[in-house]
Amino acid sequence: MPRNVRQKKRAERRVQAAAAAAVDEVANDNKKLINGELDEQAMGDGHGNEVSTNASCNANGNGDGNASGKDQNANGNANGNGSGSNNNNSNNNNNNSLCPASSSNNTNLMHTKKPKTSRADPILASLSKNALRMSDVQLLHGPHWLNDAILNFYFAYLEEIKYKSNSDFLFVTPEMSQCMLYMDDKELHGLLVSQHQVLRKPFLFMAVNDSESRDRGGAHWSLVVASRPDKSFFHFDSYGGGNTSSSMELVNNIKDVLEMQHARFRGMRCLQQSNDYDCGIHVICMADQITDYVNRFDSVDGVQPLHQDVIKAKRNQLIKLVASLGQHI
To answer: What distance in Å separates the CA atoms of residue 248 and residue 8, rounded to the nearest whole number?
Structure first.
């Protein structure tokens, strides 16, 4: 896609997002006037396969950077389908990172709000950038989609704990990758180069959602790995490549800033999910397997597909991980 076309599309998305944010602000003000105050625990309902998307970056790159995560309480039926009300939005709202501001202030590009305490929905584990609440962890016990809070938390765990001493890796959370779609080259440079030293990192792991607008969220997670040694962007999609267009759009938006203009986009063979709610688990498991492989071979090329047993065991492993990092489960 020519660069001028990409810039035009970016500008159109940013204007639309800013307009939608203004409309939402007016609507929220009206709701406050009617109800006296806004109930933080009732921010909206999700329906079916829709995703609540709160990502909005205005023309300066500011905004609410809550990436789109799947309906947190959607229950799978016998065929793996289901629907449910999204009553966990408050968790994401309390755990947002703002989209990066202008790159002129690189020390304050990403600001993390401190999660609010709640007796009804307590925080079970917390890292410096992310926290998990009881309602988040409950999603791991049954046939539920993972929300962005769980993916954010696990990517933070990989960065802050498991691979803390490995400077070769950068883990891009869903909320961060969502905001990157709205940024121009200057803002991306401030975030990725100035703040995260991305030009010194051979491997970037990016969790991507197929959300196409602020009003209607996506329905699927996949994983993109940028590898400098392989001169490639590898895309791992557990649901038939349905997230390819969103992943390619993100890659086209960032490859100039990464100085990987000539890198190939490669759709990779990977284990396909056996239901419609385990894509987040697949992303987490693939991130684990690929980082382990890269540590041994300094390359992504050649990594083998996951085994189904790894997927089946991961939810219990995540519950135990949260228990080891917290004290309330």
So the answer is: 16
**What tens digit of pLDDT does each residue of 22-73 get?**
545 544 544 443 344 433 333 223 333 334 334 444 433 443 434 444 443 3
Report which secondary-structure segment, H or E, holds 312: helix 308-325
Q: If we measure between CA atoms, which residue out of 241, 261, 235, 107 comes closest to residue 177?
A: 235
Return the ∠ at Cα 242 (arms to 170 and 141), rounded to 5°: 70
206 alpha carbon, distance to own chain's centre: 8
Cβ neighbours of residue 109 closer than 8 Å, sequence gap 6 or more: 100, 101, 103, 190, 191, 194, 195
Query: How many angstroms separate the CA atoms of 138 and 65, rounded?
Result: 24
| SS3 (DSSP) at 135 | helix
Closest to 256 in 3D by CA, of 202, 314, 192? 192
Q: Which of 56, 47, 63, 41 is nearest to 121 (CA)?
A: 41
| Residues contacting residue 273 through CB under 8 Å, at least 6 positions apart | 238, 239, 279, 282, 311
Fold of the domain built from segment(s) 3-325: Adenoviral Proteinase; Chain (3.40.395)
Query: CA–CA separation, 261 vs 324, rounded Å?
Result: 42
CB-based burial of residue 277 (10 Å sphere; 0-12 exposed, 13-18 middle, 19+ buried)?
buried
> Cα torsion at 100, 203, 197, 265 (round to 10°)?
-60
Q: Locate 225 and state its tokens.
A: 């790995």
Task: Extract the tokens encoding 128.
Answer: 């410096």
- DSSP SS3 for 176: helix
Tokens at residue 120, please? 């009804």
Q: What is the pTM of this model?
A: 0.69
Evaluate whether 274 touches 239 at the Cβ level (below 8 Å): no
Q: How far apart are CA 56 and CA 259, in angstroms?
A: 26
